[in-house]
Amino acid sequence: MPLSSQQKKTVLASFLGWTLDAFDFFLLTFLLTDIAAEFQVGVPAVSEALFFTLATRFIGAFIFGRLADRFGRKPVLMLNIVSYSVIGALAAFSPNLTTFLILRAIFGIAMGGEWGLGSSLAMESIPPSARGMVSGLLQAGYPAGYLLAAIVYGLIYGQNIGGHVVGWRTMFLLSVLPALIVLFIRSHVPESPAFTEARDQAKPSLMETLSRHWGIALYAVVLMMFFNFFSHGTQDLYPTFLKKQHGFDAHTVSWITIVANIGAIIGGLFFGALSERIGRVNAITIACLIALPSLSLWAYSTTPAMLAIGAFIMQISVQGAWGVIPVHLNELSPGSVRATLPGFIYQAGNLAASYGGPYQAGIAEAPGNSYGYALALFAGVVAICIIVVIRFSPERRGQVMTVLE
Known about the structure:
Blueprint: H1 5-39, H2 43-46, H3 48-71, H4 73-90, H5 97-123, H6 131-156, E1 160-161, E2 164-165, H7 168-173, H8 181-188, H9 193-197, H10 206-212, H11 214-235, H12 238-245, H13 250-278, H14 280-300, H15 304-322, H16 325-332, H17 341-353, H18 356-364, H19 371-390
Antiparallel strand pairs: 1-2
Helix pairs in contact: 1-4, 1-5, 1-6, 1-8, 3-4, 3-5, 3-17, 4-5, 4-8, 5-6, 5-17, 6-13, 11-15, 11-17, 11-19, 12-13, 13-14, 13-15, 14-15, 14-19, 18-19
């Protein structure tokens, strides 16, 4: 069933919100070595910012999700986007590493709300037959944000613009740009039909809902822990791997990352749509299987071209599996807490996996090891874990979504 004009605008707003959220997050991954040099610390110390950002996201998922379940998806989504935009830009003014880490932790709270809000607004606004396709599109916003960060980094970092050489602080000032989406949402995006229909009706409390569905919630948190290891374990330190282990310049790092994220977008769109035909669980399984034969090419190639091919295939796998997650979690979640529970589960999994970046960096910089070894170890083990765990998942493909479940 084709989407109406308003449904398309809703999907676009949700996609852009997640894209620019990811853009703000992934700017940091290109700048770890530069921030470390300015603050005179090692890369593992700065990579703690990745940990703090991921670890605090579940707080934002809960806060913004509860607000959205009470006041509506649309107004809270607008508030959330302004919050992460402003806080992300404030990192540019950090006088020392401690302040920088604190600001990134607060940014994580703001960032944590967007995924649950955007996905619930979109999934409740479209027909069931379109959910797989839209799920892949929404999740493709994450690599699209990474792709945008790579393009901006490659084009302007280190350039002399108006007599000023663009450094890491200027890059963070770009984080304020996503706030402009709020103008589009305010003017063109309607509230979720499911929320509007049930606005004045009594709904069960969060604790009551969780007590009835605690098994699926706990299972989903474990699943999302492995999914976040899969995503961040293959993305966050990859630019550092390219710079430190291979000595590539900013331009080379940028275009390899661009190729990887083109693969990620293709994977998300393809497997999201495929899940509508073969099921959510089967689509995720097949996507994860692709990662295993690509490990050698992705982590142990020596030329930019071969690394780019490996990264392209790896991200088809990673974001292909992720492309099914927005619809899968929303279908599994009770309607009364749909703005809270999927995002909270996602970000609770993030919390469980949040120390992956510093842990990987520590493994990579241990005597006798390398970044390639640390990346391949994480990706291989986690892909197998997801394949095993996802086979136990229930599936509710195509169910009618209401807010009174």
